[in-house]
Every structure is written in structure tokens, then in C-alpha cells.
């Protein structure tokens, strides 16, 4: 009887590995009150909305009530001061958008970017339901974008993680089935249908493929929701244009490439370095907090560090 070959965990993830991250999903959160050294604080990023408010009742003003809750129309009509009473929603929708495109199937010394993205999504999903919020997802690759509506249950998280693992294990070296900009467009098309308002949208990606249309859709998301970018890059991507020589492999074949060739060096600078810088600039333009992730350090450690945990 043939046994199924074990996949290298640095190259491909699986449901079991993502499920076990439940026990590392601590020491961070996405609530409005963040540690002072968190990437979600400071004047350059918007404060998280937290859960929304539901209107409960109208009643007479009492000493100590916040004057900002005064309903002036009712007060003027009745001649007596009235205030609106709100209660905090018990649940908030959190949407993780997980990039599993061909561009994510890259790693120089540690794990693939696609594996890191899957781990970030798993850690966040487990933490979200532990905080009694609902978690939904859009898992997208080169050809499809799969939406999963927000729910609050461990079984729903497992469903999300299973879909992520499935998309992850479909990745292989080669040419993408669609352009990066088209795959981004499919993501935002699904986001427009799935994401409503007052939610938290967490985009986990390397940022390749954005264009002016994508920028408009990012702006639209920011108008009614909090948006956080988990930006996954590999250390080698920042150095591709300056290396004298490197060897690339898909696990079976190897290719030696020289960075001294001017045309190749310019192509690297345009497609890699510029892509990273441009997408970061878009995030800064719309005051989107950027949490940087690399393919070398443990993902849970990076997440806690980015959110200010000691």
C-alpha cells in the first residue's frame, strides 16, 4: 500500500498545522485600545472602531448622562431633555482576505510567503472567535476568490482553514493562470459583496498586482470599515536587484541567474522592489496600518510584536 508523501511544512501547510495555531493565538488583539508601541496606534493610522452600537431606548435625561447622547428633536418637541441609550454590539465582523496566488509561492531561506499568509489568517481567526466576534474570509488565488460569510464558531474557523490549506496545496511553480491585477480585481469584487460596514478587514498579501482600480476599491473599503494590511515579503525580494548571482529552484529544476545583466536587473527593480514600495505607499495614503511579516521569523512572534505585545 502506497503512503502519501509528506509535504514540506515550509513549502505547503495543512489543516492540522493551522488548527494547532489555536494554542499560539494569544498576546495580541484588534480591539480599539492598543499598546502604545502597537502598529495600530499613532496619529498616522485610524483608531479601530471596535464593535458597533445598537439603539436601545429613549429616556429622560439624568444627571451624569453624556450630553452628546441628547436627542434635541425629542427634547424640543416635549420640552423635557431626552437622551438616546445605546448598547454595544456583542459581535463584530472581521474579514480575513488571504492571498494564495503564484506570487506568494516564494521563499528564499525560510517558509513560502503563502505559508506565512495562511498562518497569519489562522492566528487571527482563532483569536477573533475567542473574542466573541464573527470571522469571515475571502481566499483568493490566480483564478478564483472564494467568499465565506462571517460566523462565530470553531467549526467555521476549521472550514476557513481547510479552504486555505486546499488553495495552498494547489500552488506550484510556473506561470499564473491570470494576471495579478485581474486576481486582485476578483478579490475586491467579492469584498464589495461580502463586506458591509463597521467591520474589520485584514488583507494578507504581498501586494503585487494592484492598479488604479484596486486603489479605488481599497479606498471604498476604508470609508466604512477599518482596514489593516499584513504585508508579507521575503528578505531576498528586497535584494534581488543587487545580487551578483543566485540559483532558483522549484524543488526539481534549478536555474542560475546573474544579477549583473542590466536588463534582468532592471526587470527585478521594476517588478519586485517597485511593487513593494508602491503598495506600501497606497497603504500610507489611506492611513492603513501596515503589519510587516517576513518568511524567516515565527509568525505568531511577528504578530505579537507588530501589535505591541512585550
Automatic annotation (TrEMBL):
It comes from the Bacteria. PROSITE patterns: VWFA (PS50234). InterPro entries: DUF58, VWF_A, vWFA_dom_sf. Residues 93-272 form the VWFA domain. This is VWFA domain-containing protein.
Amino acid at each position: 500500500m502506497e503512503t502519501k508523501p509528506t509535504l514540506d511544512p515550509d513549502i505547503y501547510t495543512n489543516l492540522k498545522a493551522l488548527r494547532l495555531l489555536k494554542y499560539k493565538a494569544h498576546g495580541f488583539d484588534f480591539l480599539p485600545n492598543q499598546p502604545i508601541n502597537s502598529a495600530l496606534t499613532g496619529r498616522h493610522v485610524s483608531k479601530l472602531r471596535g464593535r458597533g452600537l445598537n439603539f436601545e431606548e429613549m429616556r429622560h435625561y439624568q444627571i451624569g448622562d453624556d450630553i452628546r447622547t441628547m436627542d434635541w428633536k425629542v427634547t424640543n418637541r416635549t420640552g423635557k431633555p431626552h437622551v438616546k441609550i445605546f448598547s454595544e454590539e456583542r459581535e463584530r465582523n472581521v474579514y480575513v482576505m488571504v492571498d494564495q496566488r503564484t506570487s506568494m509561492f516564494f521563499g528564499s531561506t525560510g517558509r513560502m510567503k503563502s505559508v506565512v499568509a495562511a498562518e497569519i489568517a489562522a492566528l487571527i481567526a482563532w483569536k477573533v472567535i475567542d473574542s466573541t466576534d464573527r470571522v469571515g474570509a475571502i481566499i483568493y488565488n490566480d483564478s478564483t476568490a472564494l467568499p465565506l460569510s462571517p460566523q462565530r464558531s470553531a467549526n467555521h474557523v476549521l472550514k476557513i482553514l481547510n479552504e486555505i490549506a486546499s488553495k495552498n496545496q494547489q500552488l506550484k511553480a510556473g506561470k499564473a493562470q491570470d494576471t495579478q491585477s485581474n486576481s486582485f480585481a476578483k478579490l475586491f469584487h467579492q469584498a464589495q459583496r461580502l463586506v458591509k460596514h463597521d467591520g474589520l478587514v485584514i488583507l494578507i498579501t504581498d501586494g503585487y498586482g494592484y492598479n488604479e482600480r484596486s486603489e479605488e476599491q481599497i479606498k471604498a473599503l476604508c470609508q466604512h470599515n477599518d482596514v489593516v494590511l499584513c504585508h508579507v515579503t521575503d528578505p531576498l525580494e528586497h535584494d534581488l536587484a543587487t545580487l551578483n548571482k543566485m540559483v532558483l529552484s522549484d524543488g526539481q529544476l534549478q536555474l542560475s541567474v546573474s544579477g549583473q545583466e542590466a536588463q534582468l536587473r532592471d526587470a527585478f527593480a521594476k517588478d519586485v522592489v517597485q511593487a513593494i514600495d508602491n503598495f506600501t505607499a497606497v497603504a500610507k495614503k489611506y492611513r492603513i496600518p501596515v503589519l510587516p511579516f517576513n518568511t524567516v521569523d515565527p509568525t505568531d512572534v511577528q504578530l505579537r510584536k507588530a501589535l505591541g505585545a512585550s
